[in-house]
What does this fold into?
Amino acid sequence: MQDLRPYASWGRHRTGTAPWPWPESWRKRPAPGPEKRRPMHAASNWSTSSGRKTRLKRNSRRKCSLYQNRPPSKQICPVMDTPSPARTWRINAAAIIMDADGYILLGKDHGRNPYWHFPQGGVIKNESIERALAREVWEEVGLRPSDYTIVARLPGLRYKYPANHRKITRWVGQEQTYFLVRCKTSRPKTDLHRSPEFAKIKWVLLQDIKLEMFPKFKRKVIKDALTQFFGPPPAANRSSAEKRVDRLASSSTLTSHTMNRYLVPPGKKLRLKDYPTDDRSLFSGTKEESLVEFDKLREELQELQKKLFAQHKHKILVILQAMDAGGKDGCVKHVFSRVDPQGLHVVPFKKPTPEELDHDFLWRVHKEVPTKGQIAIFNRSHYEDIIAVRVKKIFPDPVWKRRYKHVLDFESMLAEEGTTIIKLFLNISKAEQKKRLESRLQDPDKLWKFCMDDLDDRNRWDEFQAAYQDLIEKTSTPEAPWYIIPGDRKWYRNLVIARLIVEKLRHLQLAFPTPNFDPATISIPD
It folds into this structure.
């Protein structure tokens, strides 16, 4: 994801009022003053003339309101709206803006149009998608990049224009990249006078957003974006009391239906950079408040594991993968600290021994899978036999490439035999890894963890990232999907993982077994 920090200080430049630098050819021209802009009223967009004239009138005002006092050759910014003989897809950036309390911003059209929209717009020629997002959000609602943080993105969403759309002769439709952005404050101040896009805005909770609020041809794309960012909507038959509880909890509690934000959808193209390492968007409370929530989750995990062990029916396999110093040991230590050791099996996979190398690469893995009633945790796993072999070139490429199929078949067999597989990639930044490796060197109690091989692997950071991206994309399946967990904040990482595992166990409907005798008939002798 492009670093937006250089744009965080955008403000009033001496050559203009927009939050980005003007092109060189415009810098000596006078800036358009606010008093020269004509205000946009709902009635001015509609008239008794034909719809075609109305649209032309509205479009001309839109352009003039932003580029007044410039010669005709400079009035229109080179947006990717020029006619295309092949009628390709128009590249577009869209923003789902959430404030600090969990409310989402919607904008309403001018005039009689009843529909609402998320801020969005086309990409200017030679402009990055992140720059387009910042520009559109500034123009349409007046929020600067310093007012919010990008926490997730979803590229490649397309919708076709309807037959009567004014752009149908030039474009098939729009190819959108949706961004989820989180504001740093509650209900930040907005400004609708920079662009005539919206007549008004409102802030709503996620559960109050209905697809009927949006134009028909956009609904599928919007549904896909909301589902990817927040998970599928909860059941519609909840009571009003339950809905009130959700409203109160939305700002501070990690809700279960949002966990899919970190899920890697099987069969879809993956960009590891689209998953921020420092994300904490699912919990808006403080670190101290998270400890209370984390403690409750560990208590529930303890009770669920007792039932899992007693029922002796289901098997749980947790696979942890990460770069060096990614937090695998810390995750095991903190998340499973209250679990009964009788039902827990932790396996740290190190470099293969000579005996293990004499067998196939899955030989040492298969004998460690969980038994009924057990939770097995793989600290590293069979995926090291693809990642390490590929990056360090231990074997020729055909060797590790065919291992993808072996791994998928192996996990499919485990799933069919009743194993619930939870695969977690703890995603940390290179800067955070540096800080943790330095901490090991400076702390005598952690020095034993430091290995010179860690420095060699760090020098291959980009190669490891590319290898993990390919691996996760190819091996995220419906029966064994990957979750990419933000790893820079240890407390948030632990909170998300604990919640995810508790949710998986809840779905198994665990219960203590029913005895095959009547306890009332049993008498214990003295």
The mean pLDDT is 81. The chain is about 35% helix and 15% strand. Residues 331 and 494 are 6 Å apart (CA to CA).
